[in-house]
Amino acid sequence: MDVIIENLPLYWEGFLRTLFLSAVSGVIALLLGTVLAAARVSPVAALRGFSMTYVEILRNTPLTIAFFFAAIVLPRLGVKFEQFEVAAIIALSAYTAAFIAEAVRSGVNSVPVGQAEAARSIGMKFGQVLSLIILPQALRTVIPPLINILIALVKNSSVAGAFFVLELFGYGRQLANSNGDQVLAVLLGVAFFYLLITVPLGILASTVERKVAIAR
Amino acid sequence: MFARFSLMTTQVPGEALVSLKAVNKHYGQLHVLKDINLNVRKGEVVVVIGPSGSGKSTLCRAINRLETIDDGKIAIDGKELPEEGKELAKLRADVGMVFQSFNLFAHKTILENVTLGPIKVKGVPKAQADKDAMALLERVGVGHQAPKLPAQLSGGQQQRVAIARALAMKPKVMLFDEPTSALDPEMINEVLDVMIQLAKEGMTMIVVTHEMGFARKAADRVVFMADGQIVEDATPEEFFTNPQSNRAKDFLSKLLTH
Fold it and tell me: Which value does ipTM take for this structure?
């Protein structure tokens, strides 16, 4: 266990990088996912088609493919970035957005159709119906599954470690290499710091679930 | 303001506020609306009755295009219903709709349910919208419920709020799609009273209902539908005392024997 104590600053640094990666990717994914879900239920067929194609492709291919694409294919297409971290954020948010879009879409479908009809019948436009009536009600039912997706995102961010981004898992790998005799302790330390993010998220999920339930 | 005023004055008196011409609709094989022709003048109260599945709800919902039609023309105040989009939204703001299942916005308070339309659709300042909404809620007898959520109210109260929500848009015509069918018997009258009051004040109304008492009391015309067709179109007096078709006679006899 000494190896954990001795390398606490390194763990801490990795923890912060993971937190940063997850938070930035999470926010982007939430926004992108909500837009994709809105497109999926919009009256415009082209938008629905685009959203469906996007979600099906990203959701049904491994995250590593998204990483390879962001880290290797994008630069060849002329999208250059200074650090691999940017590629990691692109890959993580693009991948996670697909899952968020699906969760939000199912939430939208859980709102009774009469709510939208009533909103339309007082003259609201599609965007208003969605943003004022449907999404606020959908998000309440969607928060627990959304938090599950964010927990998965935190863990998925470890893939970035394989793409030369120094985050919790990346540092863990370094430590394991340099302390070959204490690999178990090193990995336990890594796991502990992941739990430090994911367990509170889980607690948050159940608290929020109890708080935002709306009576019908 | 000016444009609106001139629009109102150019309307020929007695011209149909709502007009349906040769309207047809199918659900797959089922022909739910068969060549419907109907004109409703300003201030008229038209009650649509008929057996279940006769197409009366579909007719009501087609008038503000919650249901699309296959062919024919529906016009409101001389303007044909446009395709889904901005124009349709504008037109719908002039057509109040009251649903069987109330459909109050579940996450908004009673007051917000009523003010949302005026504020977001018409751009009425919040203070003014609140004041108008409170007056409407008082009028339908639920003023003291303003800060509550819809689920805390009884069905009859919710439906009266739904009527206030529709009225807040100052509609030219009100559509009622079986407004009392989901209510417990003791709550039906409190909703009907509000509707009768509205009819007396000169509101143009199209009411799909099973409440024959309301039809007798408040209707100018009764439209009887069966199998997707308008079978009779008469005054309540004529319809209830001397129905012409066998279909209507049969329907009425079933009602009256209970």
Answer: 0.88
Q: Which residues pair with B125 in a beta bridge?
A: none
The structure's pTM equals: 0.81
Distance from CA of A124 to the nearest CA of B (A): 6
Which candidate, B109, B23, B101, places its Cα nearest to that of B68?
B23
Which of B92, B149, B162 faces A123 most closely, judged by CB atoms?
A: B92
> For every one of its 216 residues, what pLDDT tens digit does chain A have, with 9 covering 90 and above?
788 888 888 889 989 999 999 999 999 999 999 999 999 988 889 999 999 999 999 999 999 999 999 988 888 888 888 788 899 999 999 999 999 999 999 999 999 999 999 999 999 998 999 999 999 998 888 888 999 999 999 999 998 888 878 888 888 888 888 888 888 888 999 999 999 999 999 898 888 877 776 555
Distance of alpha carbon B160 from alpha carbon B188, whole angstroms:
11
Residue A133 at interface with chain B, using a CB cutoff of 8 Å: yes
B103, B107, B121 member nearest A124 (Cβ): B121
Query: By the 8 A CB rule, do A82 and A54 touch?
Result: no
CA B18: distance to chain centroid? 12
Among chain B residues, CA nearest to A128: B120
Which of A122, A131, A141 to probe the B interface (max B CBs under 10 A)?
A: A122
Q: What is the rounded CA–CA span in Å between residue B155 and residue B161?
A: 10
Measured in whole angstroms, the distance separating CA A175 from the mean position of its chain's CA atoms is 27
B chain contacts of residue A216, beta-carbon cutoff 8 Å: 106, 151
The beta-carbon neighbor of A121 closest among B66, B86, B101 is: B66
CA geometry: angle B166, B169, B171, nearest 5 deg: 80
Map residue B17 onto helix, strand or coil: strand
Closest residue by Cα to residue B169 from B100, B127, B116, B234: B116
Per-residue model confidence as pLDDT tens digits over B184-208: 988 999 999 999 999 999 999 999 9
Q: Does pLDDT of B227 surpass 50?
A: yes
DSSP state of B66: S
Q: Tell me if B213 sits within 8 A of B135, measured CB to CB.
A: no
Which of chain A's residues have a Cβ under 8 Å away from the Cβ of B165? 118, 122
Q: Scan for tokens 């439209």, then name that residue.
A: B223
A21, A88 Cβ separation under 8 angstroms: yes
